[in-house]
Design goal:
It contains four helices and seven strands; from the N terminus they run E-H-H-E-E-E-E-E-E-H-H. It is an alpha+beta fold. A seven-stranded antiparallel sheet has the order 1-7-6-5-4-3-2. The longest helix has 24 residues.
């Protein structure tokens, strides 16, 4: 499944880029993220609790950042598994200056399996878009007010 979108963030690209690769910020804004631990250069272990339709559960996964071109672009690779199934994918994040802020564009390719896949691709795609929307809304709030979302 492919997901793409854009959003405007009220900060310059360099500040947005730094926040997007900061594990402390990410742990605060990733929906359902309970823990994000650095395991190596640009590599992290993640612990999430999320639900899609009636399939809810805990996931343990890995996140890796590659192809970094500060402050304009990077690729995020993720994989995770739990009782409800697995998720694996990557997303290219691009940042462009837009007035005094940043236009963020993302294109993600995601594979799911197990019980998650059983709920149907339309439901999974809608849930993925909602999670992405929630992430960027909370991220924008934290950029505007760093004490928000704590």
């Amino acid at each position: 499944m492919n997901i793409q979108g854009t959003c405007s963030i009220p900060a310059p690209p360099a500040r947005v880029f730094e926040a997007l690769i900061n594990p402390a910020v990410l742990q605060r804004v990733i929906p359902g993220c309970e823990k994000l631990e650095k395991t190596g250069a640009d590599e992290y272990n993640a612990h999430l609790k999320i639900g899609i339709a009636s399939v809810k559960g805990s996931y343990v996964g890995k996140v890796k950042l590659t192809d970094q071109q500060p402050p304009h672009k990077f690729t995020l690779h993720m994989e995770g598994k739990g009782a409800p199934g697995f998720v694996k994918g990557s997303s290219v994040i691009e940042l462009k200056e837009e007035g005094s802020g940043t236009k963020l564009s993302y294109t993600a390719s995601v594979q799911v399996g197990g019980l998650i896949a059983a709920v149907g691709s339309r439901v999974v795609e809608a849930a993925a878009k909602k999670l992405a929307g929630d992430f960027f809304q909370k991220f924008s709030q934290v950029i505007e007010n760093p004490s928000a979302g704590a």
